[in-house]
């Protein structure tokens, strides 16, 4: 009687990861519940997470690794209260470049990536090229950012600022169908 070759789990798991990445990973109900639970509380232990989604710790841990390796979970972070850390002002800034050439777009994007005040930056369609979400301590702090940073970025033709009066909703959780 021949014995089957021993299973080499790290190799098999890496093959599963490669297949999942190649197939643009299809999320099942358990994956979605796992992701929803992590979005709600990223500090859950694997055991707590497994209990929430109806798995034991080992398969839960494997699924987490696969989701991380596939880039679906691309990092873990603490979400801070903007006001409590002294940055109560949110400004939405529309940027129009003088030209929409590839090198101008790249230079603008590189400059914006170096600005810690800019929390989000989107390349847009429509009358403006970019929409930024900027945080500041106060109006003077935002003015300094515009004068010392934004206006020094080559290629900007127009800057329009809109100040948020209040926040109606803020979420970092993506709406996942967990049914």
Mean pLDDT: 89
* Class derived from helix and strand content: alpha+beta
Overall number of strands:
4
Q: Any idea what the CATH architecture of the largest domain is?
A: 2-Layer Sandwich
Distance between the termini: 47 Å
Spell out the helices and strands N to C. HHHHEHEEHE
Computed over alpha carbons, the radius of gyration is: 23 Å
Report the CATH superfamily of the largest domain: Lrp/AsnC effector binding domain/regulation of amino acid metabolism (RAM) domain
CATH hierarchy, class of the largest domain: Alpha Beta
Beta-strand content: 15-25%
Strands side by side in the biggest sheet: 2-3-1-4
**CATH-assigned fold name of the largest domain:** Alpha-Beta Plaits
Shape: elongated
Give an overview in words:
The protein has 179 residues and is α+β, with helices and mostly antiparallel strands. The protein folds into two domains: 9-69, Winged helix-like DNA-binding domain superfamily/Winged helix DNA-binding domain (Arc Repressor Mutant, subunit A), CATH 1.10.10.10; 89-163, Alpha-Beta Plaits. The protein is built from six helices and four strands. It has a four-stranded antiparallel beta sheet. A hairpin with a 6-residue loop joins strand 2 (118-123) and strand 3 (130-136). The radius of gyration is 23 Å and the shape is elongated. The termini are far apart.
């Amino acid at each position: 009687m021949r014995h089957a070759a021993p299973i080499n789990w790290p190799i098999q798991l890496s093959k599963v990861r490669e297949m999942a990445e190649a197939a643009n990973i299809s999320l099942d109900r358990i994956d979605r519940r796992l992701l929803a639970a992590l979005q709600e509380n990223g500090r859950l232990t694997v055991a707590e997470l497994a209990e929430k989604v109806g798995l034991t710790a080992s398969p839960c841990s494997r699924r987490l690794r696969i989701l991380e390796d596939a880039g679906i979970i691309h990092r873990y972070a603490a979400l801070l209260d903007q006001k409590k850390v002294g940055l109560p002002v949110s400004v939405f800034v529309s940027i129009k470049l003088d030209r929409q050439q590839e090198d101008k777009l790249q230079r603008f994007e590189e400059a914006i990536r170096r600005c810690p005040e800019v929390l989000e930056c989107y390349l847009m369609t429509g009358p403006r090229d970019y929409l930024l979400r900027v945080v500041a301590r106060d109006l003077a702090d935002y003015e300094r950012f515009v004068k010392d940073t934004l206006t020094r970025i080559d290629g900007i033709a127009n800057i329009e600022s809109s100040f948020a009066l209040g926040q109606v909703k803020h979420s970092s959780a993506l709406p996942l169908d967990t049914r």
